[in-house]
Amino acid sequence: MSRASLGLLSLLVFLGGCGGDDDGGSESAKFPEKDWASEAAKLQEGPDWYRHALFYEVFVRSYQDSNGDGIGDLAGLTSKLDYLKELGIDAIWLMPIFPTPFKDSGYDISDYRGVNPDYGTLADFDALVAAAHERKIRVIMDLVLNHTSNQHAWFTESRSSKTNPKADWYVWSDTPSAPDNGCGTDSAVFGDSAWQLDPTRNQYYFHRFYPEQPDLNYENPEVVSATLDVARFWLDKGVDGFRCDVIGLLYESATECDLIPKTQAYIRELRKVVDEYPGRVLVAEPSNLTDATGYLGNGSDMFHMAFHFGYGYFWGFSFGGHDASAITDTFQKSLSQFPPGAQDALVIGSHDVPRAYSAAQGDDTRHRRAAAIQLSMKGTPFLYYGEELALRPGSEKVVDLRDYARTPMLWNADPGHGFTTGKPWLAFGQEADTFNVTAEDADPASMLSFYRDALALRRGRAVWGTGEMELLETGTKRVFAVYRSDDFMAYVSAVNMSEEAESVELTRPDLGSRAARVLGEGKLALRSGGGTLSLPGQGFGIFRVK
Ligand code: NOJ
Ligand code: CA
């Protein structure tokens, strides 16, 4: 359905309900307010800053080119920090920026202590971190420890003979299989066999991903200390933490690969290193896409956060139907299983999956509703660059199909779209003249305007990151609703999965007696013992109730 016809539909169904507030009064007339900007600044000062932060994942190569070579770089990103600040971003996650042969878009690192010359120098990195910190934006980096590039000096040495000092730094075998490794499979995640013959050693090395990404051997204590030193190197340089790539796969047994006890022990060591530096954080990329609990340890000894892929990578299926059960189930699971103190990292996309636009099958309302859930649940949202524009997919690939979701950022409708004055390293995505920052800024109905409003609603309000969360019974799987509360305030956030208007009864006893809609559409009429929630087809609403 087009945006115009959708707009008309909601107008017809909810005539009178679209004026702004739920029952006529403004939020500030009904509820106490605070100076949210200064609250936001306070929340970012303490050790729990990450629980209240909005993170933004950046592919430096595709963000902003500063020197016309068509490749985004660190200086380019530095020049866009004000855009990010204005959007309400508190922290950026940099996908790998290290020297790399680029067989896996930088996840094949050939030097852990350098910067990809396409992106700049260590001095450019320092300048980025300084400029970000000046604006109170933190910077975390990708830490890719399961494997290196086959061009890393460690591997060059390891493959040179069976007796060199680094001979055991990688996983070698005389056969293309190993009974005590490989977690019961000899297949790689990318491609066929996980074993590659090296002609010099005349042995096979193990690679969970591309053949150019040999797995490090963590049974060797030298590998453990060398990789922990990599973390120290960047922490010393002032980074605020790491997103840890496939870290559950560090050690494997004959039958299991995800988070076996030795891997958990390594993660606890890494956490100790990070804890030597106040205020730094770790976020896990779980290999188990439906349960991140194991990565969170006792709540304070492993990861500060883990990505919630059970929602983040599967919401498109739920919105393809009209049933929120899978969404309810995955959050029910994290609610009941997470150790105290653990924090969800909430996503609706990343560099590894199709763009939110594609997952929503081009339906603007699905994207908005998915984001409304992401931004309403207890946890820390991570946006993927361009998500705020509903960036369309590309159709060119340099590395692999995931490039469709890694196209250059679109700043305006000029030929280089404000990204470059040269030829972009990867062709721009579709409809680039229409869906870019400048065009969307000028359109109050755009995705960017939606994100600006939605992110502003979170600012300074601790309830979103750490308040209590209760999934509400709505009597139908077509309506998803959640109640978020802390001492100061409470919200009901609800999404209608179906195309039909829905009116449901909420029976929670103490929802309060008045509601103000602060985002979206629909009505919430509260009375003692519950209330009636009405949402237009494909609509969502966020209501303040305390
Ligand atoms: C997970 C990363 O997100 C992905 O992009 C990469 O290909 C693999 N890990 C291997 O590093
Ligand atoms: Ca450049």
Strand content: 15-25%
Q: Which strands sit side by side, in order, in the main sheet?
A: 1-2-3-7-8-9-10-11
**How many strands, which pairing sense, and closed or not: the largest β-sheet?**
8 strands, parallel, barrel
Report the C-alpha radius of gyration, rounded.
24 Å
Structural class: alpha/beta
List the ions, cofactors and other small molecules found in this model: 1-deoxynojirimycin, calcium ion
Low-confidence stretches: 1-21
Number of strands: 19
Mean pLDDT comes to 94
The CA-CA distance between the termini, in Å, is 35 Å
Number of helical segments? Answer: 17
Give the oligomeric state. single chain
Indicate the percent of residues in helices: 25-40%
Structural shape: globular
Can you characterise this structure?
This protein is α/β, with parallel strands linked by helices and about 550 residues long. The protein is about 25% helix and about 15% strand. The chain contains 17 helices and 19 strands. Strands 1-2-3-7-8-9-10-11 form an eight-stranded parallel beta barrel. 1-deoxynojirimycin (NOJ) binds near residues 104, 107, 245, 246 and 351.
